[in-house]
Structures are given as C-alpha cells and as structure tokens.
Design goal:
The structure holds two protein chains of two kinds. Chain A is α/β, with parallel strands linked by helices. Helices cover 28% and strands 14% of the residues of chain A. Chain A is globular, with a radius of gyration of 23 Å. Classes of the chains: A alpha/beta, B alpha/beta.
Chain lengths: 258, 119
C-alpha cells in the first residue's frame, strides 16, 4: 500500500480478522435441527489449516445457555476425526507448514499463561506411521476474556477462544472490541435480533444463522484494520473504473464578460 | 536492573547475521492480521515507511523492533522472544527464501517487569 501511494495507484485491501460468532439464548429454545445447525456453526472454527481470514475464532455465548451450549460444542469438537487426509473419514487435516504449527502451539501456551482454560484439545495431534511428523493440531477451545491476546490476534489454526456475554449490548461491545472487522456470525431465533445485531457489528460481512457462505456476487471486505474497499459485488467495479464528466457547451455565444 | 520487552534466541541471531550480510541494515516489524498472521517481519531499513503510529519495543542484536500502536495496546503485558523455525512462510519477510521463519514466543511480563515497563 505504501508503494501504491507513491504512484497514486488506487488499491483496495482485504486483511485479517478476529471474527466473533455470537450465539443468543434463543438458539437453545428447542432441541431441533436449528440447534444442531448452530452447534455445527460454532465448530466451523476447526476448519483452519493455517490461514482463514474470516475464521470464526471468537465464540460469544449468552451466559444463561453458556454451560449447556458449550457442552454440546465440546462434544461436537471432540467428534472431529483427524487422520490420513486421503481417508474419506478425515475431517480436519494438518496445518500447512511447520511455522504455522509452531505458532499455534505458541499461542496456546500464551493463552494458558494469560489464564485461559483449555476446554478441549490444546495440544498437537500425534498420528502414527507416515503421518507421525505431520503438523496436526487438535481442535482446541480456549475459555477466557476478550482482552487476552488469544482473543485479539489471528491464530490461524483450529483454535477458538470462547467467552460469555450478558445481553445484546454486551454482545455488541465484545464483538466490536477488536482491531478488526471482517466477518461475524449471529445466531438467534429472534427476528428483531436477527436484523438489529448485525447492523450494530462493525464488520464487512455478518452471517446470520449461517457462517462461511461466499456467494460470488456478495460484497466482501472489512471495517477497521481488516481493510477497505469491497470485492465481488457489482459496486466493486467502481474501484477499477474512472468516472468521466464531460461538460459540452451548446451555446455559440461568449459568456459576455469582455 | 533494566527490563526488556523483546529478546531473541541465538539460533535466530545466526539467521539475522546471514540476512545482514546480504541486505545490510534491517528492521523488525511485528505483523498484525492477515495472510501470515501475527509474525515478526524483517525488512531492509527504509523499505517500510514508519511513522509515529509505530512503537519501538526494543533492539534485538542492534536491530529495531517495531509494532503498531493499536496492536501494542493488546500486547504490552507480554514479553516476546523472536525464535526461528523450519518451514517456508509466505510473507515478504527477508528470511523466507532461506526456508526458515521467524516466530514469536510469548510469556506474560512478571509483576516487576510490568511495573517498570508499563508505568
């Protein structure tokens, strides 16, 4: 960007995020397909092989359903199979590189030092045979508070940081207490929350009752340190076009001044 | 006693020396979000424009270590050690072609360090 500015080249930027995935108490109003979907949505953090800008890496759960909800999230996370990536039962493979592997383990360590509690995972995953040296990390849930570094920095691994919130205002405050604003998830059965909460979250894309959907025409980009400009949608054409204004005089006569 | 926010391992200094020989004066800048995530990046001095939103955390073997002010607010209670690990990263940091990668190992500042450094 600094070199683009030198030549006045226009740019758009899409950078990182620390996207909140927010679960309101109404998701547990019934034990039905929607709850099942919500639990799956919470566990989508585990799909991260070393770089997912929009990873739902902060899990925010309303306090009155916290224990019951997290119990289900942990159970679902523990059911993730890590094995030979050619095996069709494999759900989560290895990290893309050794440095990523090391970095994730370093983050889990600082998270624990800061007082985060490991709810599940928290270690490398050791496989046998030819995968013994693979860069596998166990899907990990860390419980803490939003000021911890594990809540503020991209870890880029199958690691989620979870905390609870009281009410709508609290959820919005925690969600927006970040340098970034790329993605966010809101899960609720309440039609008012479904419209109002996403509007209050400073993020370029807010998924409601879903996550990680990327239709080709939907504008994509971030607030704050997640960048500027949007891509994919028709509006992004304006980033690449010039707007030309022509002023043509039809009048043969002079202005009349001199 | 003088307290420091940043340190570096001997193995990482070896790589620094290699890079210095090739590129001359260097700086570290702690990357925040995106692509390579929270990794220390090393550049030729002058390659990256610094301004008053960049905080100087300290020097590592004579090389300045910077971080953006906003990010510093969330990091300032931790001590950082730059280490080196095998594996080729994907950023523009100068060590990448060597097939190694600088990484950060963190610990909490002790109460004493915290009192001194964040007063």
């Amino acid at each position: 960007m600094q070199y683009a500015s030198k030549n006045i080249n226009p740019v758009t930027m899409e950078l990182g995020g620390k996207s909140p995935n927010i679960f309101f108490n109404s998701v547990m109003d019934a034990d039905d397909a929607f709850l099942d979907k919500a639990i799956e949505g919470a566990v989508l953090f585990a799909f991260n092989q070393g770089e997912v800008c929009t990873c739902p890496s902060r899990l925010l759960v309303q306090e009155d359903i916290y224990d019951a909800f997290i119990e289900k999230v942990i159970a679902r996370t523990n059911a993730i199979v890590q094995t030979n990536p050619y095996d069709s039962s494999c759900m989560v493979g290895a990290q893309a590189s050794n440095d990523q592997y090391e970095k994730i383990l370093a983050y889990i360590k600082i998270g624990k030092e800061e007082g985060a509690k490991v709810l599940t995972g928290g270690k490398a995953c050791k496989l046998d045979g030819e995968f013994a040296n693979g860069f596998y990390i166990q899907p990990t849930i860390l419980e803490g508070h939003n000021k911890m570094r594990i809540f503020q920095e991209e870890i880029f691994g199958p690691v989620v940081s979870v905390t609870k919130f009281k009410d709508e205002a609290d959820a919005i405050a925690i969600a927006n207490d970040t340098l970034y604003g790329l993605g966010a998830g809101v899960w609720t059965r309440d039609a008012h929350q479904l419209y109002q909460i996403p509007r209050a979250i400073k993020a370029g894309r807010v998924w409601v009752n879903c996550y990680h959907a990327y239709p080709a025409h939907a504008p994509f980009g971030g607030y704050k340190k997640s960048g500027f400009g949007r891509e994919n949608h028709l509006m992004m054409m304006n980033h690449y076009r010039q707007t030309k204004n022509m002023l043509i005089s039809y009048d043969k006569n002079k202005l009349g001044f001199f | 006693m003088e307290y420091k926010r940043v340190a570096i391992t001997d193995k990482a200094i070896e790589v620094l020396n290699q890079l210095r020989e090739k590129h001359g004066e260097l700086i570290f800048h702690q990357s925040g979000g995106c692509c390579d995530g929270s990794a220390p990046m090393i550049f030729e001095e002058g390659d990256m424009y610094l301004d008053d939103s960049d905080i100087l955390l300290g020097q590592l073997d004579g090389i300045n270590y910077y971080m953006n002010q906003d990010q510093f607010e969330y990091w300032k209670h931790t001590h950082l050690t730059v280490d080196i690990t095998e594996g080729r990263g994907s950023s523009f940091s100068l060590e990448i072609p060597l097939g190694v990668r600088f990484i950060i190992r963190s610990r909490l500042l002790t109460d004493q360090e915290n009192a001194e450094l964040n007063k």
